[in-house]
């Protein structure tokens, strides 16, 4: 997955299911990592696998990527300038959502899964309180500037303050995003939050307006001047 993963399961039998979840994430990484030469996506990009032999998981993720591209006027695009495919902007949220399904399928409703800043929480924490998520100050990453309570929703943050310029405007011939630093999205689940966080960040300052106008999404953006702007319904998730 490229970044740390944390799984917190509030159940006496949680140890076994946590192991299963991490095994699942390892399988996802082996299939979708663009850094593994033996991964399926790497083989597809080399032309080693005909389309008829692509896995069901690969076809599902690529279909979601196409759907997201259509829904965001092309601001989400997994095809790179060299023609290769990089589904990293959607596969993480997809994998976390599926991992949450594994935990729920085991009859456990109180858990928290976080991978690289994308989060799916359910139920209550060990103190029987709502799970909380801190949004970091992109200029001082050890400082929390906003706390949200997702209450079963998914949370995803896109930004340049950790990994540098890795999200580009596909309508600007690969131009980097300079006017915003961090954008957090809350969606119905982590997949919805993740796929739209990437696209909205690629829109720059217009991303927060896209989120405002899209039903089921709320957002919080921090611009290059340190000014934060939330969508109109974001505050509901800040109330304990």
Q: What does this molecule look like?
A:
The protein is of the alpha+beta class. The protein has one domain (5-121, 133-238): ApbE-like domains (T-fold), CATH 3.10.520.10. Helices cover 33% and strands 23% of the residues. The protein has 6 helices and 11 strands. It has helices spanning 14-32, 40-46, 56-71, 88-105, 190-202, 207-213; strands at 5-9, 111-115, 118-122, 133-137, 140-148, 154-159, 168-169, 175-176, 180-187, 218-223, 228-230. It has a 7-stranded antiparallel beta sheet with strand order 1-2-3-6-9-10-11. A hairpin with a 2-residue loop joins strand 4 and strand 5. Helix 1 packs antiparallel against helix 4 (88-105) and helix 4 (88-105) packs antiparallel against helix 5 (190-202). It starts with a strand and ends in a 10-residue tail after the last strand. The model has no long low-confidence stretch (mean pLDDT 92).
Q: In brief, what are we looking at here?
A:
The chain is an alpha+beta fold and 240 residues long. Helix content is 33%, strand content 23%. It has one domain (5-121, 133-238): T-fold (Roll), CATH 3.10.520.
Largest sheet data: 7 strands, antiparallel
Number-wise, the strands total 11
Number of domains in the coordinates? 1
Low-pLDDT sequence parts: none
Question: How are helices and strands ordered from N to C?
Answer: EHHHHEEEEEEEEHHEE
The chain-level structural class is alpha+beta
Q: How many H/I helices?
A: 6
- Mean pLDDT equals 92
**Beta-strand content estimate:** 15-25%
**In which range does the helix fraction lie?**
25-40%
